[in-house]
């Protein structure tokens, strides 16, 4: 019989503690071993209860959730799922938490928290179970934003060394759990004149603009939240607005973004498969397809279609992935043969572009 995932809930809201306890204890594979109303109590309970996963609210008394998370990831790294509010401030704080090492996050509705949490109990359970299997590493030094002289010089030197044309390739990247930081790592290594990149990261409405702005600060490329009908240009990376799909359509000799408010695919919206299938159809062998860390199997079938169109494909390797669900599913399906460590993904992309 498999061991249950032991969870510690850290939240100052009695309603949230009660709802999460009921949801998680209702699954036979999970046991809530304790609750804490603030990080200082949590610190003692972590030592005593030795949980597998922590759910952590950001805004709590006595110690800020981010400060607690930073200390935890430095001193005793554990899988953490953040509980965040669906606000602009909540989005920015959640992205900071993911940068500090949190595995994933659960969005807490502004109104009727109890009913809101109950409505996606299945997702909460899945994220906690996935977090228990995640590879959590000690916190490393924060990355330097792109606007420093070193970053600009590094990007320019890579670009000069490759001397490639940027108009004949379209790079498509999909990610989920762990992907917010994985995408940052990739984009901060891409030169300013790299081929256009289209991205899908599983992220809710309200988070995508803050996420695009965060990536833009760390990349020599211009990273933006896509708008319907806008031209896809070299040196730019495009993310769908949260809660909507993005497809690539051909318009004569150029590509454009099509924002699609259709139903969820693979239980996700935006979905990687929606983007990848459109890239296979519109770009064919001019594309390059990549799947980074993420739970589930979204993107595997779309990546296979990109490969079948004659384009190169690869995935992030298991050792560097927070969760090897999506990359592993793609390999199992035969959609990608190459597996690349995260810190080499940008280099591999530019090698493939240079070969073209």
TrEMBL record:
Residues 164-356 form the CheB-type methylesterase domain. Keywords: Chemotaxis, Cytoplasm, Hydrolase, Phosphoprotein. Pfam families: CheB_methylest (PF01339), Response_reg (PF00072). It comes from the Bacteria. The keyword Phosphoprotein applies. GO terms for biological process: chemotaxis. This is Protein-glutamate methylesterase/protein-glutamine glutaminase. It comes from Pseudoxanthomonas indica. The gene is cheB.
């Amino acid at each position: 019989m498999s061991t249950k995932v032991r969870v510690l809930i850290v939240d100052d809201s009695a309603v949230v503690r009660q709802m999460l306890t009921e949801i998680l204890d209702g699954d036979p594979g999970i046991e809530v071993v304790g609750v804490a109303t603030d990080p200082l109590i949590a610190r003692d309970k972590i030592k005593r209860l030795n949980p597998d996963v922590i759910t952590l609210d950001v805004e709590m008394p006595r110690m800020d959730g981010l400060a607690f998370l930073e200390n935890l990831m430095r001193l005793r790294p554990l899988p953490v799922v953040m509980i965040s509010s669906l606000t602009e401030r909540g989005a920015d704080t959640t992205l900071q938490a993911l940068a500090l090492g949190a595995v994933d996050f659960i969005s807490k509705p502004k109104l009727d928290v109890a009913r809101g949490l109950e409505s996606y109990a299945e997702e909460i359970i899945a994220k906690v179970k996935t977090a228990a299997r995640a590879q959590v590493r000690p916190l490393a030094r924060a990355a330097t934003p792109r606007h420093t002289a070193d970053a600009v010089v590094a990007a320019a030197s890579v670009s000069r060394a490759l001397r490639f044309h940027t108009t004949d390739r379209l790079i498509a990247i999909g990610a989920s759990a762990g992907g917010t930081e994985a995408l940052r790592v990739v984009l901060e290594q891409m030169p300013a004149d790299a081929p256009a990149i289209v991205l899908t990261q599983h992220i809710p409405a309200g988070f995508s603009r803050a996420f695009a702005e965060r990536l833009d600060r760390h990349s020599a490329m211009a990273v933006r939240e896509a708008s319907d009908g806008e031209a896809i240009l070299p040196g730019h990376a495009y993310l769908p607005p949260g809660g909507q799909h993005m497809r690539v359509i051909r318009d004569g000799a150029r590509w454009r973004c099509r924002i699609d408010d259709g139903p969820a695919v693979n239980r996700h919206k935006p979905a990687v498969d929606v983007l990848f299938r459109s890239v296979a159809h519109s770009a064919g062998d001019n594309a390059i397809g990549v799947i980074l860390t993420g739970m589930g199997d979204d993107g595997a079938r779309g990546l296979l279609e990109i490969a079948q169109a004659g384009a190169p494909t690869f995935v992030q390797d298991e050792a560097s992935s927070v969760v090897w669900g999506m990359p592993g599913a793609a390999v199992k399906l035969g959609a990608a043969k190459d597996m690349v460590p995260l810190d080499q993904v940008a280099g591999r992309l530019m090698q493939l572009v240079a070969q073209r």
